[in-house]
TrEMBL record:
Pathway: Purine metabolism; urate degradation; (S)-allantoin from urate: step 3/3
Database matches in InterPro entries: OHCU_decarboxylase, OHCU_decarboxylase-2, OHCU_decarboxylase_sf
Domain named Oxo-4-hydroxy-4-carboxy-5-ureidoimidazoline decarboxylase: residues: 7-163
Species, as recorded: Algisphaera agarilytica
Protein name: 2-oxo-4-hydroxy-4-carboxy-5-ureidoimidazoline decarboxylase
Keyword flag Transmembrane: no
Catalytic activity: 5-hydroxy-2-oxo-4-ureido-2,5-dihydro-1H-imidazole-5-carboxylate + H(+) = (S)-allantoin + CO2
PANTHER family, sorted: 2-OXO-4-HYDROXY-4-CARBOXY-5-UREIDOIMIDAZOLINE DECARBOXYLASE-RELATED (PTHR43466)
GO BP field: purine nucleobase metabolic process; urate catabolic process
Amino acid sequence: MNLQTLNTLSELDAQERFLGCCGTAWWAQQMAACRPFQNTPQLHDTADAIFDQMAEGHWLEAFAAHPKIGDVDSLRMKFAGNKQWSAGEQAGVDNADEGVLAELADANDAYEKRFGYIFIICASGLTADQMLGSLNQRLRHDPMAEAPIAAGEQRKITHLRLDKLMVDED
């Protein structure tokens, strides 16, 4: 897809494409309403401006659209619009041994219990051990300190997905 195609999609089709980039309906609606985009930097700048207006509930909705790191069953069942992107982003767990996967599952559960949402990390290029290290480090955070970190990771993921949207074939 290119910007011209994105700009000419129906409002609902554009929202659906944006929802695959960031799983909150409010953000997707705002992005679709801001078209037309003149260039990719404007697309990213608009995404950031809308992120800056997002309420906690929007962030939580976006977090919930992600499969848990290393959870293959969750990855299969989550949003068809971005599951192949999620799988590629989490490729670092593909070759992880069972012990690391079990530790990831346990730490994911502990994180969700502590913070009330799943662990969000921009996993592209990270190994399972690196993700586990980040997860264990972030588990020590105060909930008020962790929320903006999780939102920042969501922001990074969304920017990667916007770039993928611009290169995916229709």
